[in-house]
Here is the input.
Amino acid sequence: MDTFAPLAFDPLDPVALTQALVRCPSVTPAEGGALSLIAEVLAAEGFTVERPVFSAPGTPDIENLYARIGREGPVFVIAGHTDVVPVGDAGAWTRDPFGGTVSDGVLHGRGACDMKGGLAAMIAAALRFRRETADAPGSIVFLVTGDEEGPAVNGTVKLLEWAHARGERFDHCLLGEPTNPATMSDMIKIGRRGSLTGRLTVHGKQGHVGYPHLAENPIRGMVRLLAALEATPLDGGTAHFDPSNLEVTTLDVGNPATNVVPAQARAVFNIRFNDVWTPQTLAAEIEGRLREAAGNSVRYEIVFDPTNAVAFLTEPGPFVAMVADAVEAETGRRPALSTTGGTSDARFIKSYCPVVEYGVVGQTMHQVDECVAVADLIALEAITHRLLKAYFGGKRAD
Ligand SMILES: [Zn+2]
Here is the structure.
């Protein structure tokens, strides 16, 4: 391990640590100094830190971080990512996106809420817990990737495989993505919907609109097929999930002429699906609906994009309750258990141990002027600290 100059800030201060991380320009796939900073902070507290780099053809090499303190179980994992989405229109920002400035109780910068703030608060909490309870049973592991906002190929998936191959076993995981819509007591995520994208092409025969019997309009067939996909709900939802939802995201003919019947029509749709389906069973359902609607009069092709976004649920039980208890104790309100929103790296972690997501308020994620309230960082540090105390304090979660 490298030796470092003393830190210029107190790593137990979640605000200072968030500022330091925001100042690292870690736009995917750049590491930007963010993982080095975390490595430095954790190593100074006695964590064993490793920095595996993963590669795959056609994608940039990605740095990741694995850190552990303690040798025995239970093993509590804190997961997150340090990469951020691009700034976008830099001129539209009212402050330096990598400045990490604090004004009027708000910390500004790219990644402040998604999710350097969440990660910093959890690191600060883990350090405080270990300093207070150096002889605590069990282990704390950090899994931090630099590839969540990008292709997500050389990140959490491979970091988990890498750790598993070394014999690492995890008991529970807290993923610090911003889960709260408006206040810190709003929402814990106990699952995520899956995502499946389909590409539909309908073939016709180009011709003169004045001689339709010599042409075959693919738009007519496309309308019929899309109507069939939308006609019946995919399901009625489940105990913890909303009904699966299909959205047509584009419909393209690209025909500039008003007197020509086009040869082809294309549409793309995306389905956010619940735990009734796997990508395979859902694709089969869609194929069946199309086949029936097309009969032998519509010529079409359907292709599904490869997906690793499956639906999953961490059943509410003692661990979920422990997280909810910690949130309620610090905020005075019990958070909802939700499975809404997009996908996250939790979809990979769930294959190794139960995973719950909780973090700061996500209102400005990926936006211009991304920011996080200082009070929320302080609350998240307190909640995580309380959770660690409960988890390692003998009240075992299952
Ligand atoms: Zn994120």
In short: The pocket of zinc ion is lined by residues 81, 114-115, 148, 177 (CB under 6 Å). The longest strand covers residues 59-69. The two ends are 35 Å apart (CA to CA). The chain has a mean pLDDT of 95.
